[in-house]
């Protein structure tokens, strides 16, 4: 057994049937970068019974607040946006070429079904690809941003435009949520709407357990992480928190073609991942670890070199420096339509954030030298 895991009796699941139903609807709803508002409204509607007030900023970051009058402010945060595509060029014969909106993977695109979002509603399309019979030569051409294209069943540019499609329309995959082997949640955009779900579940547990926090808790679902942590950057300056705990996904490295020497050894089902990086405040990180050990929550460790690549970096370096830490959820097949997360890890991330909040004191100073 790994040294970071504490032997403990099996606890009941945190995620109940009602919350799972919300999770499925939330994942199935598209929330592309820059167009997150429908998902944010859905998230807020779920969160409202568990908070005192809420607000939404100019770009769509949604925030629920518990104990808003408190001077000391603690943030728990995830990001709401998913990778997508933009219509970039429409050919005279009615085919559509695209550019990325976030880190969309061109290699998984061929044969995928998509939704093109227009002012007239959703238009269905597919990423076409030449049949295997027609691809000759010693070296096959691989999918690239220059050769993947959408076919919406039109034969002219005018016909495409008459459907309401224009340059700048956003495109999302239509793949939906499922449960695999009663063990994994599978879907697109688990990176990182799983995080938004988990922080909402923390708020639910606080309410149901009648916990009175000695500080203000800001439950933040930020936009535009996939294009450079932009939503977190904006909201950090608005809230000006004293502490920030961020949750995002990280790679399960125990699937083929991943180098553990460079990516670390992390597995789904073995618990939340606690990160080490310059942006992670060491004393806050120790609080997370001690909270996990005290509560018998299994966890794993990850080293993140120069940056975490998550909203942790945005919060940490805002407002003259905010003590920040990262709790990650192991995920298989990131930025595909079949992202996979383990049910036990979801429960344990929720538990770890919840237990860590119970161990933070109002006015707590995390500096080494005071």
Automatic annotation (TrEMBL):
Pfam families: Peptidase_M42 (PF05343). SUPFAM superfamilies: Aminopeptidase/glucanase lid domain (SSF101821), Zn-dependent exopeptidases (SSF53187). Its cofactor is a divalent metal cation. Keywords: Aminopeptidase, Hydrolase, Metal-binding, Protease. GO terms for biological process: proteolysis. The active site is at residue 225. GO terms for molecular function: aminopeptidase activity; metal ion binding. Coiled coil: none annotated. Gene3D superfamilies: Peptidase M42, domain 2 (2.40.30.40), Zn peptidases (3.40.630.10). Binds 2 divalent metal cations per subunit. Zn(2+) 1 binds at residues 79, 191, 248. Zn(2+) 2 binds at residues 191, 226, 335. PANTHER family: AMINOPEPTIDASE (PTHR32481), AMINOPEPTIDASE YPDE-RELATED (PTHR32481:SF0). Belongs to the peptidase M42 family. This is M42 family metallopeptidase.
């Amino acid at each position: 057994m790994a040294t970071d895991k504490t032997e403990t009796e099996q606890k009941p699941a945190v995620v109940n049937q009602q919350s799972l139903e919300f999770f499925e609807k939330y994942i199935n709803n598209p929330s592309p970068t820059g167009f997150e508002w429908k998902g944010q409204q859905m998230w807020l509607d779920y969160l409202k019974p568990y908070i005192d007030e809420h607000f939404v900023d100019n770009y769509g970051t949604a925030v629920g607040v518990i104990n808003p009058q408190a001077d000391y402010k603690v943030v728990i945060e995830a990001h709401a946006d998913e990778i997508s595509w933009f219509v970039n060029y429409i050919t005279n014969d009615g085919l559509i070429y695209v550019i990325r909106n976030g880190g969309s993977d061109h290699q998984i695109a061929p044969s995928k079904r998509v939704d093109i979002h227009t002012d007239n509603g959703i238009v269905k399309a597919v990423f076409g690809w030449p049949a295997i019979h027609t691809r000759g030569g010693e070296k096959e051409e691989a999918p690239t941003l220059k050769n993947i294209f959408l076919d919406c069943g039109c034969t002219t540019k005018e016909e495409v435009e008459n459907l309401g499609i224009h340059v700048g329309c956003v495109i999302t995959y239509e793949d939906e949520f499922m449960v695999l082997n009663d063990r994994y949640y599978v879907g697109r955009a688990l990176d990182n709407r799983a995080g938004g779900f988990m922080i909402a579940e923390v708020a639910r547990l606080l309410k149901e357990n009648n916990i009175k926090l000695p500080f203000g808790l800001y439950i933040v679902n930020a936009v535009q992480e996939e294009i450079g942590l932009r939503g977190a950057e904006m909201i950090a300056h608005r809230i000006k928190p004293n502490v920030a705990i961020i949750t995002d996904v990280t790679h399960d490295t125990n699937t083929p073609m991943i180098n553990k020497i460079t990516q670390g050894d992390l597995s789904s089902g073995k618990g939340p991942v606690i990160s080490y990086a310059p942006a992670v405040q060491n004393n806050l990180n120790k609080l997370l670890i001690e909270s996990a050990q005290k509560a018998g929550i299994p966890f794993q460790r990850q080293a993140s070199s120069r940056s975490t690549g998550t909203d942790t970096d945005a919060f940490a370096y805002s407002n003259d420096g905010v003590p920040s830490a990262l709790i990650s959820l192991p995920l298989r097949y990131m930025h595909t339509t079949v992202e996979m997360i383990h049910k036990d890890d979801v429960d344990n991330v929720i538990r770890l954030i919840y237990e860590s909040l119970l161990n933070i004191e109002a006015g707590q100073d995390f500096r080494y030298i005071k």
